[in-house]
């Protein structure tokens, strides 16, 4: 039976060479036949709509799942899990360049913000990873530092470049998923 990977993409257009498309394609290719990567189209960035879509996608999965969120998809997946929980067993949660809403002046959006005690409300996550470029031009590196402080059990992978979209892939993500 194939392992299921649910990938929640970034905000904005998701066509060829847009948004998370390159990262998703690389992930599907590199994980190989043992994995089934699902990357549903998400509605306009409205938390109520994303919450409903995430709930529907998770409900349609088998008992055990690997969750990956890129940029807005990462932050909203984390918000969903901390507020709604999950009836499925989560083998791993992988957050790539996720914004931490409410911590920085340019990143204020009450609809997307986590509660102060969000970390204590997460379901059991035996594998939690954060990936972020030190010079990310879209989501500042400070966001990864905020998450690392709130989620000390997370493995944080820092990249010296300025990548946000990881269009050429993220080999460490593939390796980390294969290890679980």
Question: What features would you describe in this structure?
Answer:
- The chain has 180 residues and is an alpha/beta fold.
- 31% of the residues lie in helices and 20% in strands.
- It has helices at residues 21-31, 47-59, 72-84, 142-150, 171-179, and strands at 3-8, 35-38, 64-70, 89-96, 128-133, 155-159.
- It has a six-stranded parallel sheet, sandwiched between helices.
- The longest helix has 13 residues, at 47-59.
- The two termini are 15 Å apart.
| Strand segment count | 6
Q: Give the class from helix and strand content and strand pairing.
A: alpha/beta
What is the residue-mean pLDDT, rounded to a whole number?
96
**Main beta sheet:** 6 strands, parallel
Oligomer: single chain
List the main descriptive attributes of the protein structure presented here:
single chain, 180 residues, alpha/beta, six-stranded parallel β-sheet, 5 helices
